Amino acid sequence: MKPGKKEYLLIGWSILLILVNVLWLVLDKNPPAWDQAAHLRGVVNTNLFLRGRFEGGFLGLLRSLWGYPPLIYFVGAFWSFISGIGVNQITFLNTIFLILAMWGVYKLAGNKVLPAILFSLFPVIYDISRNMLLDLVLTVWVIWGLYFWLRKNDEKWLLMLILASLTKLNGFLYFLPMVLISTIERFKEKGFWKKAIIGVFIYGIAVGWWWLLNWSAIYQYLTGLAGQGEELTDPMNLLSLTTWIHYLRLFFLQQIGPIVGVVFGISLLKVDFENEKNKNLLWWLLMTYVVFTIIKNKDFRFTMPILSVVAIYFGQGLLKIKKKWLIALVFGWMLFNYIENSFNWPVRKPMVVSTPTFLMGDVNWIDFSDYPVREVRQNKWPNVEIINDLPNWKNSVLVVMNSAEINDNNLQLYRLILGKNEIEIHGIDRWGTMNFDYVLVPDLETESAPFYDVQLAKRKEIINEIWQKNSHDYKIVAEYVLPNKQGKVYLFKGSS
Predict the structure, then answer these.
(1) CA 403 to CA 401: how far, in whole Å?
(2) DSSP code of 175?
(3) In angstroms, rounded to a whole number, what is the distance separating the alpha carbons of residues 294 and 244?
(4) In 332-353, which positions are buried (b, 16+ CB within 10 angstroms) versus exposed (e)?
(5) What is the DSSP secondary structure assignment for residue 488, as one 8-state letter?
């Protein structure tokens, strides 16, 4: 079918998003953080496996993926054959998934352009599109799964479920509400149960092999779904209101922003929830919200698929308000934030306007502070220099430094990219179990990242011990100045 005016508009917007992300990736010099580096390593290792250069075979490859399903790593590996092996080249793959997600919202909204564009301008969406994380990929499968579910296209819906399950461990959870709603609505439908049994069989064949090979990781995940405990970083007490509004706060404050959130709340008053499609999407949204509230580990990335339905309701409400100036203001504000948050222009950060509220806590109505969207950072970090300074023969390196920019995950990634395969890089969990040829240590004033560092006390102990043994067991062979006066990192060589 020949594209119409709406399709051409969305094609033009897609090109703009691609160009902006390419510019952002080219300008940004920041090394990938912990999770991003781990997923990039998975892609590089899979690339090596497909070229017959990965030791350990297929099972060894699966073990190297830390319990994650392999789909995106194989997709990324095939993509890297075209793009080349590099951080930016592989990360660009998420931009392609951004476009697929946006077109999915367009189709799910009944070929409406406004919801699709609004979706692409939600801060969490365009931020994740510039990072090698799995959540946007998973969002694509969920959006298209919703589309095929509403059209009762069971075969294509099942395919989306399989792809989601092979992308992330929790992928199937987004589809459980669809299964429940369909069962309630269609259990008397002729041939429904036959289709369901066949679908379960096909799903078992397509996904079951991976479940069997990774049963331990899956068991640990599933047994922790409904657990409660002391609040550390995420609220877990299911008897607490704080827990149940946690994702609402993340939605309002981080996923779409408070000003847009207020306008969205107003637009909801105009949405026709008597409409069967809107009603089914609402039930799916609420049930998904409950499922992920029950799960211990919480992050604003985990409810990203919900934003597709939010964008649809948002677009419907704005169009029914019939105030073109309001649509223009909302779009203008979101576009301004898109540019400002991405490139720190035209307003120089930080700039925050905040007020306390009853349920939401402190609300940053205007927040140009590099969170939740990370701006372009052009400071040069010494990761590549560190790897190049290490001799390319069999030697072991203990990485005590632990920041988003320098950690054992991303140094292992650069080791792979630079082809220095003889070097073994370890985190502090190996301290005391083996002797190391080299140790990478920050100075005593440099702090490790407390949120991600559950072994903070052990890390500080190692740092102090290495510095105390400087004159005997370890000698400084290189030092690296960190950008923005963040201190120094030192490479020590063991005496033995």
Answers:
(1) 7
(2) G
(3) 9
(4) eebeebbebbbebeeeeeeeee
(5) E
In this structure, are 358 and 401 located in the same domain?
A: no
Per-residue pLDDT tens digits for 327-366 = 999 999 999 999 988 998 877 666 777 788 777 778 777 7
- How many whole angstroms separate alpha carbon 88 and alpha carbon 65? 20
User: Quick one: pLDDT band at residue 231, thresholds 50, 70, 90?
Assistant: very low
Q: What is the dihedral of CA 116, 120, 124, 127, to 10 degrees?
A: 160
Share of the chain above pLDDT 70, in %: 92
**In terms of Cα–Cα distance, which of 347, 388, 398 is closest to 368?**
347
What's residue 227's pLDDT? Answer: 44
**Peptide bond before 350: cis, by omega within 30 degrees of 0?**
yes
> Cα(494)–Cα(471) distance, rounded to whole angstroms?
11
Q: What number of other Cβ atoms are within 10 A of residue 289's Cβ?
A: 17
Residue 373 lies inside a defined structural domain of this protein: no
* Same domain, yes or no: 195 and 334: yes
DSSP of 204-236: HHHHHHHHHHTHHHHHHHHHTTT-----SSS--
Reported as half-sphere exposure (CB side, CA atoms, 13 A), residue 353 has a value of 5
What 3-state DSSP class applies to 89?
helix
Q: Are residues 306 and 413 in the same domain?
A: no
- From the list 98, 95, 102, 93, the residue with the least C-alpha distance to 72 is 93
Range of the domain at 156: 5-30+92-365
**DSSP 3-state assignment of 257?**
coil
- The pLDDT-based confidence of 446 (bands split at 50, 70, 90) is low
Partners of 363 in beta bridges: 355
> Residue 487: how many CA atoms within 13 Å on its side-chain side?
14
In contact, 406 and 31? CB cutoff 8 Å: yes
Whole-angstrom distance, CA of residue 305 vs CA of residue 302: 8
pLDDT in tens, 9-38: 999 999 999 999 999 999 999 999 999 999
Task: Give which of 494, 449, 456 is closest to 35, Cα–Cα.
Answer: 449
3-state helix, strand, coil in the chain (%, to 5): 60, 10, 35
pTM of full prediction above 0.90: yes
Residues 221, 96 share a domain: yes
**What torsion, rounded to 10 degrees, do the Cα atoms 35, 100, 124, 271 define?**
-150
Rg, C-alpha atoms of the chain: 24
